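Shipment paperwork, digital attachment
Item: protein structure file
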Amino acid sequence: MVSEHTSSSNAQVLVASNRGPITYTLGEDGTLDSKRGGGGLVSGLSAVDDKLWVCAALGDGDREAVRRGVGEEGVRMLDIDAEVHADAYNGIANSVLWFVHHLLYQTPVEPVFDTEFRRQWAAYETYNRAFAEALAQEAGPGAAVLVQDYHLALVPGMLRELRPDLRIGHFSHTPWAPVDYFRLLPDDIAEQLLRGILGADRAAFLTRRWADAFIGCCTEILGGTGRTRIGVHGLGADADFLRRRSHEADVDERMAALREQVGEDRKTIVRVDRTELSKNIVRGLHAYRTLLDTHPEWRERVVHIAFAYPSRQDLAVYRDYTAAVQTLATEINAAYGTEGWTPVVLHVKDDFARSLAAYRLADVALVNPIRDGMNLVAKEVPVVSDHGCALVLSREAGAYEELGEDAIVVNPYDVTGTAEALHEALTMSGDERSGRTKRLAEAATALPPQQWFLDQLEALREG
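Attachment content:
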């Protein structure tokens, strides 16, 4: 056990996540440049002044920064062996745990839990142990430690053994698999994952549905959740930031460019996603094509603005999926486009300002994931929309729990049903759309990132 007297920072609030708030790039001349990240966790942590963020060095620039002793106050970056990290992150976290919780396997042929899986699992254990040891070293007596997500599911249990004095929380940003699907995992691995999270005083989730699924797995496999308390914190959109940022000059420039691509007097269906398998972009495009077939009156009167930003391109299945999105968009434009009308405006280069411009322009937002822990796009569009926006929302998105009443809800596998939902959204009256947008924005911002984080911290400290 690491004694509390060996703590090197005596931090009282610690956060652990795979990705940290800053990344370094190594120039050809050997210089290091840093870039700060965004997202709900970065926003949430700004609510706490005295904290330490423990994260992994993700690339050559990060690793070089650690080796040179370059860093930012309040951040400890771990230089975990690159091959260990690759096996843990791509081999297990993104290719097994993500697939299990998002129900993505083609079960006739996958998964195959063989000796290669066991080798990668050992790397996942090593990776989690590195975090647990760093947290044990850095935490002051009785400190609060908030461990983030499926990458670090074993950390709470490992840390509990090293530092029983700590208050440990774990937060899952993904869905949690129902018990029958979770049991695709080898029995010992399933048990190890659950016991890892149950090393925390408190395990928290984005929705009651995901929390109940976790409880169901623990009950079936372990006989219960033991002393671990279960919480729900539905991360909301940061309204102040979004409204301010969406009216800056670069967003206005992107809006002008998008308007030119769309053309005059046309409605817009907007989606903004990473090309992640669970986001269901391909079926969304099929639904749009079906709309143009079944409701030909929309031809030349609507444009689908689809932003599909490449994700996890070091995995072949994600590269193939990104290519499939591009191919289908090209086919739709070839089949239906006219000289003055491009049915699908597809962008695959990440551009936050352009995303905000699309949010402001949207008449309809399409958010149709197969399964999603929350989906902040569904919450952000109503907040930013200039003239009100109808939301077509998958019932499998965590956001459905809060937004379902004022969205047009779809089964994400039902392409014809989604096409009809798009038609309903496009024909919604201005008054109804405006009223729904107002209520959606209120629900979407009920728990902004800072309050979301502070609520978890307070609940953890209450014991």
